[in-house]
Design a protein that fits this description.
Length: 258
């Protein structure tokens, strides 16, 4: 009997969570988030990631939210993801995924720097990353940067390095006018709770000071799946499960980096 109650509760939570996402998709509510003066306005946004597929696995709620509200979104990918010798393939896959996510290919930049190669144990220099990000901010007139937090969702060293690169950038007084936001990493139970985590994320955002943490629900989860499917070299069975059961497919919590 107890197991039946647990199963029914889980099913009810999943169904109610999907209805919440459907409601957001239909209403496209103009929640005051990443705002200027309390009124939402168009921003020039730079999403800084480490590898092709990071955007589809972790950031699609943010990308969909900003794109649907007229933000000018750029993606800066610090490597081709060449750890397995498939860098050129993965590079093209990111361009295809960006089309699914409504990000123009000309606004997607993928680096192949000799000192920024994909791999566990390959530490990236924060000053080099900061220099590259600064150049992209200047070239694209960026006023808002989004990236990983210091754990980087999965603890991958390259994700953490990208975060440190953005922090290095913020120490430069000439870039104080640029806002920076990080994707909040969650514990493993929340990470694999699928859409159910939207309720915990909403509560978490409410407990923080106003304007410090924002919860973005994915208004187009099917678009997220379609984008990840473009990364055919990575679209193996366990990543298919990850995308279905990962909370990052359905919600992103962004925290302002001070």
């Amino acid at each position: 009997m107890e197991w039946l109650v647990i199963i029914v509760t889980v099913v009810v939570l999943w169904v109610s969570s999907f209805f919440k996402l459907l409601h957001e998709s239909l209403s496209a509510s103009q929640v005051a988030v990443l705002t200027d003066g309390g009124v939402f306005c168009k921003r020039n946004v730079l999403l800084v990631i480490a590898h092709p597929d990071d955007e589809s696995m972790f950031f699609t709620p943010t990308i969909n939210y900003l794109s649907s509200r007229g933000c000018n979104l750029h993606i800066l990918c610090m490597s081709t993801g060449n750890a397995d010798g498939m860098g050129n393939v993965r590079k093209e896959e990111l361009y295809l995924a960006s089309v699914m996510l409504k990000v123009p290919q000309k606004q997607v930049k993928i680096l192949d720097h000799p000192d920024l190669q994909d791999g566990f144990g390959k530490t990236w220099n924060s000053k080099l990353l900061s220099k590259i990000i600064k150049e992209e901010i200047a070239n694209c007139d960026i006023d808002l940067v989004i990236t990983f937090d210091n754990y980087g969702v999965s603890g991958h060293c390259n994700h953490c390095d990208v975060h440190q690169g953005v922090r290095e950038l913020l120490q430069d007084t000439s870039h104080r006018a640029v806002e920076a936001w990080e994707l909040v990493s969650t514990n493993i139970l929340r990470k694999y709770s699928g859409p159910v985590d939207i309720w915990l994320s909403i509560l978490s955002a409410k407990f923080h000071l106003r304007g410090v943490v924002h919860c973005l629900l994915n208004e187009h989860p099917r678009r997220s799946l379609a984008a990840m499917a473009q990364h055919k070299s990575q679209w193996v069975w366990f990543r298919k499960l990850f995308v279905c059961f990962s909370s990052y497919t359905y919600v992103n919590c962004l925290k302002k980096i001070n």
